[in-house]
């Protein structure tokens, strides 16, 4: 298996990055089981131009691990503007880990840990001291083993129509 990196060199006209990212993102939300297919379809259509733009702007970097031509694991790091705060007194950005997914046939081989490690190394390279994520219950232990901890974050979300 080999890992490859999505970067600004990816062809934005082709949807920004590799098809594995889009398929894995959809599969990740589908596996959580609470989102209708119509919403996932609309999300996928809107994700493609968004990720292409983020890659071009240098705000998104992702990794895909492949077994031959088959994408089997992926993760991405998004750089967000963020004001200085108690966890990073001088920083103006934070990282956000997203699109972490491992094909069910390839789980329990350390692939999630490996792609998240690549994202954290990139965050370190960019000087990002804080990296946030949202985890499924199934993946929580992976992130905790890498040093992530629960916080007091809450959400308000407008209902999605679709």
Can you give keywords for this protein?
4 helices, 162 residues, five-stranded mixed sheet, Aminopeptidase, 34% helix
| Highest-level CATH class | Alpha Beta
CATH topology: Aminopeptidase
Mean pLDDT: 85
List how many beta strands DSSP finds.
Answer: 5
| Terminal-residue CA separation | 38 Å
CATH superfamily: Gcn5-related N-acetyltransferase (GNAT)
Strand order of the largest sheet: 1-2-3-4-5
Class derived from helix and strand content: alpha+beta
Q: What CATH architecture label applies?
A: 3-Layer(aba) Sandwich
Question: Would you give an account of this structure?
Answer:
By secondary structure, the protein is α+β, with helices and mostly antiparallel strands. It has a single domain, classed as Gcn5-related N-acetyltransferase (GNAT) (Aminopeptidase), CATH 3.40.630.30. The chain contains 4 helices and 5 strands; from the N terminus they run βααβββαβα. A 5-stranded mixed beta sheet has the order 1-2-3-4-5, with helices on both faces. β2 and β3 form a beta hairpin. α1 runs antiparallel to α2 (37-56). The radius of gyration is 16 Å and the shape is globular.
SSE topology sketch:
Blueprint: E1 2-6, H1 19-32, H2 37-56, E2 60-67, E3 70-81, E4 93-102, H3 111-125, E5 131-132, H4 140-145
Parallel strand pairs: 4-5
Antiparallel strand pairs: 1-2, 2-3, 3-4
Helix pairs in contact: 1-2
